[in-house]
Amino acid sequence: MPQEQATLRSGQLQLARDGIRSRQPLLSLHEGSTEEGVAEDLKSIMSELNKEVVDLVWGKPSGGGVSASIFRRWSQGFVFSEHEQTALKQFEGGPCAVIAPVQAFLLKNILFSRESSNWRQMSEEEQKMALCSTLTEILESACASPSSGFCLVTWAKGQSPHTSTLSKTQTQPQTQTQGMAKPESSQSPQEQQPTALAAEDLGFEQFHSVLHKRTVLSVSDLREEVVSLYQSWRGCCGVLLFLYSVILTKGIENIRNEIQDPTEPLIDPIHGHGSQSLVNLLVTGHAVSNVWDGDRECSGMKLHGIHKQASVGFLTLMESLRYCKVGTFLKSPKFPIWILGSETHLSVFFTKEMLLVGPESPSEQARRVFQSFDPEDNGFIPESLLEDVMKALDLVSEPEYVSLVKSKLDPESLGIILLGPFLLEFFPDQDSGIPDSFPVYHYNGLKQSNHKERVEYVEGTALVLGFEDPMVRTDDTPVKRCLQTKWPYIELLWTTNRSPSLN
C-alpha cells in the first residue's frame, strides 16, 4: 500500500427560528410494498439526493445491496456498559469507526468539563446529558456552514422500532403507536433498556424506508433536538442515525471534495469496515483520507491531510509497520486522549495528565523537524541534509561547524546521521515537561476483547523515558508498538495480568 494512499480500516433542518420543525422523509416508499418489492421501490422512488447518501456510505456492492449481516452489525445504538458507567459498548465488528470517536469525545467532556472528581460514576441522567453533549459537539464540528443549519436524521413518526430488550412474546402489542417507545418517564426499567441490534425483521431497505430528516438553524436548537432524540440514539440503529446526521450536516458534496477517492464508500460493503475518511470526519470535521499534516502533491494531484490541531488524537499500529505517517495535528491533540487503530479495530487510550499535550519542547521540535527530512521514517538522514536540519532549527550552521558535527555524529563515515545521536548532541539535558510516570487507561468497546466480556477500562502506569536505553522493559505488545509512534521510549505497566487488546 503506498504510503501517501494508506487508508486504515477499523473493526476496522433544525427547529426553525419560530420553533416550527422542518420534517422531510429521507426515503418514502409506497405504503403496502411487499418485502420483495422494496428494493425495486427503493431505486425508483428514492430522490437523487438520498440515493447519494446511501451510495456515499455503503457504495454500490456488486450483489445489488448490503449484506444483512453487515447491516445488522451496524444497527446498534449508543449503549453504556453496565460495568463501566462512562464507557460505550460495541456488540460486533464494524461500528467502532463511529463508536470509538464518540467515546473519545465523551471521555474528553467527562474528564475535563465535568466538575465531579469521580469521572467513572454517572447517573442515568448524567449519561444522557454527556452523550447528547458529545453528539452535538461532533455535529457542530462537521457543519460546513452554520447558516445552512444542522440536519438530524430520525425515525418517521410512528415508525421507530421498539427499544425494549424483551422478546416479542414478552412485549405487549403496540398497534396504536406502531412500535414507538413510550415516554421515558412511563417506561419500566426493563423497557428502558435499549436494544443492541435491530429487530430481526428490520432490513437494510426497510430501515431506509422509515427515516425522516429535520433541519435546525441554531446551535441552541440543535442541542435541544439532540436531547429530545436521546431514545433514538440509544436504541436500534442509533449509530447509523447519528452517522447519517453528520453526513447530511456536513454536506455530501463537501465530503466528496475531501475524500481522496470519491468512489470509496465510508463503510466497506463487503467487510463492513469504516474508512479513515469516516474516522477523520468524526474526529476533525473533515472527511480527508490521510493522517499527515496539511496537503501534499503527488504526481500533480493534491492529497488532503489534517489542517489543524485536533481535540482528540489518533495513533495507528500501521505507522509502526510503516504503512503511513501520522502528523503532529493528530499525534499531539488538545487533550490527552488518542484513538488507537489496529489492522481491524479502533480503541481509545487516555489519561488525565494534561502535561502530555503541553507546548512542544525544543527536543520535541527537533525530533519533528529531523523526521520531516526523513519521510520514510528510517531514523536517519543522509549527511548532506544535516545542514538543512540545523538551519531549520536555528542552530549554528556555518560550513566548518557542520563538517565538525558530521565527523562527530558519523565517525565511521557511513554517510548518515542517526536521530538519537543528533538529539543527544544538541539537546542532551532537555526536559520535555512530561512526568516520568502517570496513570493511563485503555478502552475497548468490544465485550469479547475484554476480560470476562465486561466492557471496562484497563488501568495502568506509563513510563516515558529518555533517548538512552530504558532501564525498565515491558512486553512488546501491539498497544505499546502503537504508542511508540508517539513516545518511542514508552513502557507500560498494566494492573491486569494481560495487556489490553487493540483488536
UniProtKB/TrEMBL annotation:
GO terms for cellular component: nucleus. Residues 161-195 are annotated as: Disordered. Residues 169-194 have a biased composition (Low complexity). Belongs to the MINDY deubiquitinase family. FAM188 subfamily. One of its GO terms (molecular function) is calcium ion binding. The keyword Repressor does not apply. This is Ubiquitin carboxyl-terminal hydrolase MINDY. The lineage of its organism: Eukaryota, Metazoa, Chordata, Craniata, Vertebrata.
